[in-house]
Amino acid sequence: MITSMKSDSTPPTTHARKGGARRRILVILGVLGVCLAAGGGAVYSFRGEGAVQAITRRPIFGEFVNDIVERGDVESSSNTELRCEVSSSEGVRILELVAEGTLVNPGDVVISLDDSTIKKDLNAQRITVNTVEAAYSKAKNELAAARQAREEYEKGTFVQDEQKLQSELFVAEEQSRRAKATYEYGRKMRARGFITDSQLEGELFSVKRYDKDRDAATTKLMVLREYTKPKTLIKHESDIKTNEAAEFAEKAKYEIELAKLAKLEEQLEKCVIKATTTGQVVYNNQDRWRGDEYFVRKGNRVRERQVLVKLPDIGQMQVKAKIGEARVDRVKPGMEAIIRVEAMRGSELKGIVKTVSAYASDEMWYNPNTKEYDAIITITDPPATLKPGMTSQVAIRVETQQDVLQVPVQSVVERTGKHYSIVREQDGKLSLRELSIGSSNEKFIIVKEGLGRDDEVVMNPRPHLARVGLKDVEVDPNGAKPADDAKGKTPATTKTPATPVAGESPGRGA
Questions:
Q1: Do 130 and 233 form a contact (C-beta atoms < 8 A)?
Q2: For residue 259, what are the CA distances in angstroms to 255, 263, 416, 432?
Q3: Are 394 and 72 in contact (CB under 8 A)?
Q4: Where do runs of H (alpha helix) occur along 48-85?
Q5: CA angle, residues 84, 86, 87, in degrees to nearest 5
Q6: Burial class of residue 179, CB neighbours in 10 A (0-12, 13-18, 19+)
Q7: Which stretches does DSSP call E strand in 380-429?
Q8: DSSP letter for each residue of 128-175
Q9: Torsional sign, CA 27, 28, 29, 35
């Protein structure tokens, strides 16, 4: 009785506190028990393969398409290139250039190059040309004088000398004739005694003297004609040949220096690069592997024959894509393609494969183990907003099949060259089916034999391989198919790990 009274005398609040503490402890213990149970179940599900639920779906029957997807750059199939045509060992600096994307017409200035060095060389060359031209003029005059001297001698001096000697010969002959006549007359007069012998001897002396004068005049005339004239003509010819050579040399020098002058004048004109056709200015800066000093921009130096500007015809656009070595044999000219340009999100352009290079591109020199081939895809109807240099994704349709049975790639596994799927039968049990497969893309694979439209194919076959005995598959050397025995067991093992099928490597361009 006493004890009972003590218990009843305990304050009500104390009982409430103790009861609340007990309830909290029980709740905490209950939560921990649930967590432990859930944790144990999770571990069991992770470790126990049979506890993983099989996710199934039916095959798809319809159109199968296989696209090779690659990236590429938009470009024009018709580009007018503007090059640097200024010769310089160190390059020439860009002074001014129009903004990229500017629409230009023929004759519009696109780039202005530094012409100060050319102007300096041009002034020096003009002085050189004037000096050489003076020497050339002098050589021409000397040649003309030499030719004139020969003609003067042949038609003037020689004729005068010849006529003079002919006159002397004529006089000498006349005097000799008269002297002979006088001598004959003296002989007659001496016979008659009119003159003396000494007088007759004087007449004979005159005859001999005039004969010698005649002979001397004859010899002079012969020497003039046969020796003096040929010798003088040879000398004149020699002078002419010498002056001709000098004139030829000076002419050659003059023409060389004149060509240099014309070249410098042409180079001066080429320091101003003008558009030759109508187009939109695109600077040739696509090669990002080269240093910044090679870019076409104000202040940089450019080299002779370097392509500076491309004026593309925006009405003839195409995409240049790189096709991997493993897939290039499947891409043929004439195949259709869908082009998605990154700058034009939400729109698709149609294209046709124009060409596929027969040789690997040399742009992968930094990675010689990777070989890629250039493919040109013509855009059939390019919009006005499409510009060269835009990045795009090209899906080339390499295969299309109608009314074929397809299953997802991940639902097929391979063992020693054979392919299998796991199917849920009507009674709920899982069974193994050997498949005869066809083409595949990054999502689906064609099943020729082994499945029907109403079969429930397991989408996550990995956790269920042991249940259907796929780990113990043995391929007969004679090519016989593995068969289950009466107990549902399969022949002995090959220990090849299960892998998703890869008739083509899944992913982009499969």
A1: no
A2: 6, 6, 78, 88
A3: yes
A4: none
A5: 125
A6: buried
A7: 391-408, 413-415, 418-424
A8: HHHHHHHHHHHHHHHHHHHHHHHHHIIIIIHHHHHHHHHHHHHHHHHH
A9: positive
Cα–Cα distance between 334 and 74 in angstroms, integer? Answer: 19
Neighbours of 32 (CB within 10 A): 10
DSSP classification of residue 506: S
**pTM check: above 0.90:** no
In angstroms, rounded to a whole number, what is the distance separating the alpha carbons of residues 373 and 396? Answer: 14
Tokens of 175: 């005097």
- Give the CA dihedral 435, 439, 440, 445, nearest 10 degrees: -30
How many residues are given for the chain? 510
Handedness of CA 58, 60, 66, 70 (dihedral sign): negative
Closest CA to 176 of 201, 143, 148, 213: 213
pLDDT (tens, 9 = 90+) of the chain, 510 residues, equals 333 333 333 343 334 344 444 555 554 555 444 343 333 333 223 333 445 788 999 999 999 999 999 999 998 888 889 999 998 888 899 999 999 888 899 999 999 999 999 999 999 999 999 999 999 999 999 999 999 999 999 999 999 999 999 999 999 999 999 999 998 988 888 888 888 888 888 888 989 999 999 999 999 999 999 999 999 999 999 999 999 999 999 999 999 999 999 999 999 999 999 999 888 888 888 655 555 667 898 999 999 999 999 898 878 899 999 998 888 998 999 999 999 999 888 889 999 999 999 988 876 556 667 789 999 999 998 888 888 888 999 999 999 999 999 999 999 999 888 999 999 998 888 999 999 999 998 899 999 999 999 999 999 998 888 888 876 444 344 444 443 433 333 333 333 333 333 333 333 333
End-to-end C-alpha distance for the chain, whole angstroms: 92
Rounded to whole angstroms, how far apart are CA atoms 268 and 266?
5
Amino acid at residue number 510: A
3-state secondary structure 217-236: HHHHHHHHHHHHHHHHHHHH
Q: Could you give the angle at which helices 158-192 and 197-223 cross, rounded to 10 degrees?
A: 160
